[in-house]
Write a structure and sequence with these properties.
The chain is mostly beta strands. The protein has 1 helix and 25 strands.
């Protein structure tokens, strides 16, 4: 207990000390200059595979994938519709936050979808042989409760796969928690869900108590889950962080929450959230959405990227760069 307390006391002081600073990482790979925001959109998911960058985005009732030789180039890359849902199914509408993963020799997209009613949102899996080719619907991925679920991601740790997502405890809206379960294959869960985070602090409850958009971040044996907190429609949307303290990944007590938000808004970069991470030459970049103007909610989100810094085994994000900033990206 003392070790956990000491860790978060030190990380709290680090965030307080560096809160007003921008934190360029050391040794950033040479690249091209880009102006922020990079492009319009939300819930960015970017990966690097075989020297190319891919991003994945929703398209109403389907999914679009883009490919570029550079991270900045995704803004002008051609989008390919890799899946379009048929009408009249439980997964025909409201595709949210798709993620593209390469697992066990095949490509998978995890995406939330419903039949037109938000209460029926569940996580689904698509499978394909080519990230820019056609994907097929495999089906729903869920634990035994089969409750409301969005923002699913895959965490790979010590050779095992785990599914992490945002969901409701029961059958009614009002609070979103983070859950984790073990995966026996890329398309199925074989354990009960475990709640590893629930909105606790004031910065997680503005607008509504929300923990969503989990993204795994790992370096040198240290494992974190970075997530979005508070209502995504508010200016107070921000990022929080869980630290894996060791032991069983499926034990809620193995996860410790940082008591302060780790990435918060500023002028021309309000409501930063729903991030992904991409590593290039040992430098980690955070890709996220935010708003240029206050009070614009879901209507004007745009995507940005910037390097993060590691202090020992602790990631430090600094502040989101303001709109109009020029940054070198790989």
């Amino acid at each position: 207990m003392y070790a956990v307390f000491s860790f978060f006391l030190s990380i709290h002081m680090l965030f307080v000390t560096l809160a007003g600073q921008l934190l360029p990482a050391k040794g950033v790979p040479a690249g091209e200059k880009a102006e922020l925001p990079l492009y319009g959109g939300c819930d960015p998911w970017v990966i690097m595979y075989d020297g190319a960058f891919y991003d994945c985005r929703s398209a109403g009732n389907g999914v679009i994938v883009r490919k570029s030789d550079t991270l900045a180039g995704l803004s002008s890359a051609e989008g390919r519709v890799v899946y379009r849902a048929p009408a009249g199914t439980a997964y025909s509408a409201n595709y949210w936050a798709p993620e593209l993963h390469y697992l066990d020799g095949a490509w998978y997209i995890y995406v939330a979808a419903d039949d037109g009613e938000n209460a029926n949102h569940r996580m689904y899996v698509l499978r394909g042989d080519d990230p820019l080719g056609a994907f097929e619907m495999v089906g729903k991925i869920t634990d035994g409760t089969d409750r409301w679920a969005i923002d699913g991601t895959v965490l790979t740790w010590k050779g095992e796969m785990y599914f992490v997502w945002s969901g409701w405890e029961g059958d009614e809206d009002g609070e979103q928690n983070l859950y984790i379960a073990h995966m026996d294959t890329p398309v199925s869960i074989d354990s009960p869900r475990v709640k590893i985070s629930t909105p606790t602090y004031k910065w997680e409850k503005r607008g509504m108590g929300v923990n969503e958009g989990p993204a795994a971040l790992e370096k040198d044996g240290a494992l974190y889950i970075v997530y979005s907190a508070s209502g995504s429609w508010t200016d107070d949307y921000c990022l929080g962080m869980l630290r894996f303290a060791g032991g069983n990944v499926l034990n809620a007590k193995s996860w410790a929450k940082c008591p302060v938000a780790v990435f918060t808004g500023r002028e021309t970069a309000w409501a930063p959230g729903h991030c992904s991470f991409v590593r290039v030459e040992d430098v980690d970049y955070i890709v996220y959405h935010s708003n240029v103007d206050k009070g614009t909610g879901w209507n004007a989100r745009s995507v940005r990227a910037q390097p993060i810094r590691w202090v020992g085994k602790t990631p430090v994000f600094g502040k989101p760069l303001p709109a109009g900033s020029e940054i070198e990206l790989p």
